[in-house]
Design brief:
2 domains; Lipocalin
Length: 148
């Protein structure tokens, strides 16, 4: 639910004798709208847990959002697999967030093979879930927003 305060809803109150909303009410309305907009954004730090083809992994993703464009990077968490090193950073090559829909892509590699990792999901406040496609394999992910 979006927490916005419309100045037009305050107008009838302002017309009453002795009631003046003036600048403080306008500032409050702007602050509430800005706060709601920040909550509607996918920007921030996200702890992602995924599974593709039976392989579990974690990511620390940090997203910036400008309009519908999503940018940033995801850093591999520890893997437990000696062939796959954690700590690698993957810059987003594509990213999009509109309403509750979110998607992003980055390039990863396994040994000498490079491939796109595509995420598509639904964001509900500070939680996301969806599907992953990578190197012809399918999987799923969940994510939660974490403090910076």
């Amino acid at each position: 639910m979006r927490n916005t305060l419309s100045i037009s809803k305050l107008a009838p109150i302002a017309g009453r004798a002795g009631v003046s909303l003036g600048l403080p009410a306008a500032i409050m309305a702007l602050a509430l709208t800005t706060s709601a907009s920040a909550q509607d954004s996918a920007a921030g730090r996200w702890a992602v847990a995924g599974n593709v083809d039976g392989k579990n992994f974690t990511l620390d993703c940090r997203f910036q959002q400008s309009g519908a464009a999503l940018s940033g990077a995801c850093i591999d968490g520890p893997t437990g697999d000696s062939k796959i090193k954690g700590g690698r950073s993957h810059a987003l090559t594509k990213g999009h967030a509109t309403g509750t829909s979110v998607s992003w892509t980055y390039v990863s590699s396994y040994m000498i093979l490079s491939f796109n990792v595509d995420y598509a999901g639904v964001r509900n406040g500070d939680h996301m879930s969806g599907t992953i496609a990578a190197a012809g394999k399918k999987g799923a992910f969940t994510a939660r927003r974490v403090s910076a």
